[in-house]
């Protein structure tokens, strides 16, 4: 059994002791590194340039040696005629980025990636959100058959097995399906959870206010994902949380954040203490503009290494400015053990001293 699947067998995986947790995180990331190093000639060539091989990885502290590529490189190569050369597995399904802030990019994922994502994220969602099969979920995204985006596919595959019913509350143009949403909100025979991007959440809350519709969802979870997507930020996070709590009569501890990155097809969820937990199938390293690791609490650019993606080496320097708020050997106030991050904004390529890596140099 792979280390990836071994992790699926562990109960309360966010509460395992520090030493065991770091060892398992190291083993699962090393396992996927060896897989791509062995089966992906382009990535192996890049690793040799960086003078890193599987034998370079001895323990947890060596994970930051794994050669990573950048989100800008990924978009370049996936939009080029060399896309297939970068794949470890060429039997793929193309899913697009949201296209809400720029032209969509088609990301190649295989069936094993989708399996891993569904199982790992489903396990983490069960631990952090405690959804049940008797409850329903309103997703403020287009249905995958209308959009073909990775984010919609992720939500359908991951959340469908966890709840009784999913309702899709916006059309392909991100317009609210108001009659459907109103019917969902007025049902009294089941608990209804809601997930959506900040800008659609804002439209929903303003519509409730305009129509003077009273809604009470005291046992529900409200999950925010995707940010404002380049649109004007209408209010601070604190104001926004208060707006949701007032509008839905919902407890603030049940308002959660969901950070997702399609480059690595990986999602992190927040706990009741509003901290985003990095699940054990991933490793996050925060770097300064010279790509050196920074200390816990310092802002920098996030590098995410994930064991979710098997179709290509998803070891990526993102465009997200983040900081580690809890280290790998610390405990959150919620009782869970291991790293948490805070997303602080976006970073431009020009702000970083990046090595010259492009599609022609590999």
Question: How are the secondary structure elements laid out?
Answer:
Blueprint: H1 3-8, H2 18-39, H3 41-49, E1 69-70, H4 71-78, E2 93-96, E3 106-109, H5 111-129, E4 136-140, H6 144-147, H7 150-159, E5 165-168, H8 178-186, E6 192-196, H9 198-210, E7 222-225, H10 237-248, E8 255-261, E9 266-270, E10 276-277, E11 282-287, E12 300-306, E13 315-326, E14 340-346
Parallel strand pairs: 1-13, 4-5, 4-6, 6-7, 7-8
Antiparallel strand pairs: 2-3, 8-9, 9-10, 10-14, 11-12, 12-13, 13-14
Helix amount = 25-40%
Radius of gyration: 20 Å
Q: Main beta sheet, described? A: 12 strands, mixed
Average pLDDT works out at 93
Task: Sketch the topology as an H/E string, one letter per element.
Answer: HHHEHEEHEHHEHEHEHEEEEEEE
Structural class designation: alpha/beta
- Poorly predicted ranges: none
- Total separate domains: 1
CATH superfamily: ANL, N-terminal domain
Overview of the structural elements:
It is built from 10 helices and 14 strands. By secondary structure, the chain is of the alpha/beta class. The protein has a single domain, classed as Rossmann fold, CATH 3.40.50. Strands 1, 4, 5, 6, 7, 8, 9, 10, 11, 12, 13 and 14 form a 12-stranded mixed β-sheet that branches. Strand 12 and strand 13 form a beta hairpin. Helix 2 packs across helix 3. It is globular and about 65 Å long. It starts with a helix and ends in a 16-residue tail after the last strand.
